[in-house]
Design a protein that fits this description.
The complex is a heterodimer of chains A (111) and B (114).
Chain A (H helix, E strand, L loop, with lengths): L4 E3 L2 E4 L5 E6 L6 E7 L5 E8 L2 E5 L7 E4 L6 E5 L8 E9 L2 E4 L3 E5 L1
Parallel strand pairs in A: 2-11
Antiparallel strand pairs in A: 1-3, 3-8, 4-5, 4-9, 5-6, 7-8, 9-10, 9-11
Chain B lengths: L2 E5 L2 E5 L4 E8 L6 E6 L5 E7 L5 E3 L5 E5 L4 E6 L8 E7 L9 E2 L3 E6 L1
Parallel strand pairs in B: 2-11
Antiparallel strand pairs in B: 1-3, 3-8, 4-5, 4-9, 6-7, 7-8, 9-10, 9-11
Classes of the chains: A mainly beta (111), B mainly beta (114).
Chain lengths: 111, 114
């Protein structure tokens, strides 16, 4: 069964460093998403992406964040200068059959 | 604007007992409602969804949910809990379109006692 994959599963970084979180969506899906879940809080929407451009973004998704689909399979989330409050689980999702399918997540810890 | 409220951050049941996890939504457009389950150290797995049509929807692992527009609710039930049902459950709403962003409730941790 096709699934969304994410790498790395865990990432530890120093405050101010850039991180790139990678996702491989399900191959025939056209809509892609990033969400995050800070420990103990709700899952929050960050951004959606369709046809090689952002279709919607939340207030959280400021200039420090960017997304890219560099090739036909990968979908990346870049955080340019990480802050302590960026520590969270980041989930990628892709949409097919009226359903968003989630990857296993990347746990990001900013020190 | 949309919101999703899950009543009860923790629910504890005995094995074999009824499971009832509550979800209420508010939405200015017809909702697209989903229940996801998250097992420890894993991602979000779809349990079931309501988009249009039949208001009682059945999902995996014996779970079902009923969309009640008059009550703005989408409660999740399972007649008989199993130890393997212990997990965190999230209700969410895509609000009007299947490809829209999901708005999540705060989650309910289900504990199943032997």
């Amino acid at each position: 069964e096709p699934e969304v994959t994410q790498t790395p599963s865990h990432q530890v970084t120093q405050m101010g460093q850039e991180v790139i979180l990678r996702c491989v969506p399900i191959s025939n899906h056209l809509y892609f998403y990033w969400y995050r879940q800070i420990l103990g809080q709700k899952v929050e929407f960050l951004v959606s992406f369709y046809n090689n451009e952002i279709s919607e973004k939340s207030e959280i998704f400021d200039d420090q964040f960017s997304v890219e689909r560099p090739d036909g399979s990968n979908f990346t989330l870049k955080i340019r200068s990480t802050k302590l409050e960026d520590s969270a689980m980041y989930f990628c999702a892709s949409m097919g059959e009226e359903t968003q399918y989630f990857g296993p997540g990347t746990r990001l810890l900013v020190l | 604007a949309q919101s999703v409220t899950q009543l009860g951050s923790h629910v504890s049941v005995s094995e074999g007992a009824l499971v009832l996890l509550r979800c209420n939504y508010s939405s200015s457009v017809p909702p697209y409602l989903f229940w996801y389950v998250q097992y420890p150290n894993q991602g979000l797995q779809l349990l079931l969804k309501y988009t249009t049509g039949a208001t009682l929807v059945k999902g995996i692992n014996g779970f079902e949910a009923e969309f009640k527009k008059s009550e703005t609710s989408f409660h999740l039930t399972k007649p008989s809990a199993h130890m393997s049902d212990a997990a965190e459950y999230f209700c969410s709403n895509a609000g009007g379109t299947s490809y829209g962003k999901l708005t999540f409730g705060q989650g309910t941790i289900l504990t199943v006692h032997p």
